[in-house]
Amino acid sequence: MKTDQKQDNQQKSLDEVNGSIKVPKNAGFWRTLLAYTGPGSLIAVGYMDPGNWITSIGGGAQFKYALLSVILLSSLIAMLLQSMAAKLGIVTGKDLAQLTRDRTSKRVGFVLWIITELAIMATDVAEIIGSGIAIELLFGIPLIVGILITSADVLILLLLMRLGFRKIEAIVATLVAVVLFVFSYEVILSQPNIPEVLKGYLPTYKIVTNTPMLYLALGIVGATIMPHDLYLGSSISQTRRVDRSDKNSVKNTISFTTIDSNIQLTIAFVVNCLLLVLGAALFYGTNSSLGRFVDLFRALNNSQVVGAIASPVLSMLFAIALLASGQSSTITGTLSGQIIMEGFIHLHMPLWIQRLLTRLISVTPVLIFAIIYHGNEAKIEQLLTFSQVFLSIALPFAVVPLVIFTNDEKLMGEFKNHAWVKWTSWLITAVLIVLNIYLILQII
Fold first, then answer.
1. How far apart are CA 248 and CA 252, in angstroms?
2. Which of 169, 234, 242, 414 holds its CA 20 to 30 A away from the CA of 437?
3. Which pTM does this prediction carry?
4. Could you give the CA distance from residue 127 to residue 170 in angstroms, rounded to a whole number?
């Protein structure tokens, strides 16, 4: 294979953990899968971060179970694109940022870094706000202080990196499990109408004809595919040691990495469905204001809104899940920051400075808003809406190169996309770009 040319002249993606995890040879299916399990959980958190919570629960509160079909479609798209990103990293030995920079000029690479950095900042905004508010709700700590505390969690990541990448995977997987458990429990208590829930997975024409429903559906699809997740996926797929001169080794790595990714994205799909079902079961028809995290926290403890199951325990569990979601997402956001900084502008610096810089870039706008508005949650959460603009702008700059590279036979060899993947990915790309342009126009 010719995909490793010039690899020795360029630092490997996430060099400190690249190829650091051994995988068993000639082992059984389950033992091998266990060795590859982990990167998928880091990818999945991007699809169920705090930024998706309001949309999913609000979708259920407004339109009951009708938008479950949109969550299903979005999840299938995510699985396809993430499998392509993982395959790109495994086959070429480079991440998406490095490959894009290799095929552009230094000036273009710098512009792409700025755009992608803004996208990571936009993603981090929701995670920092979610974590900060969760800390405020759980411990009564002022929001500004909570935001500062979330800024320091980068130090935890530095410690985990010293202990090994498997520790990071385990921590994130645990946090994801907490979110899954909390919302499974709350949905069981809410006693949703199961036949109606299943019916919600069937697309309905009302999604297109009902303008408010269409707008919310476009928001779910357009905001689900996070640009930074594609860069991250193409990098952390390389944490497992693979012999690129051995086609069977490459093939097995692609297969097991894809299985891990799909399993974890299925969990993200379930979480998003639980959020929507919870919103529908508890809040549909109540005319409740559910625009903010604090609103949801209070509603779960209000018998006039959610009925007899109202309980401080439900509210506290919600805040715990919000904190778990925010913390797991900030870990992956920081890793993504390193990947795009090294890939696009070849900027290498001491690891702790690099981690701190990527976090400060993200936390600064949130902290400024918190100070200006004296910790007012409603004003600060307005940043969530504006952050979607940056995500929408950055998305094509990640998806289009990904589709081009994975369709390139010279780059991918026999591992290039099959015909159905090629045309499906281009169709998805076109649809995502149109949807995001529409969202940008609506927000502006």
1. 6
2. 234
3. 0.87
4. 19
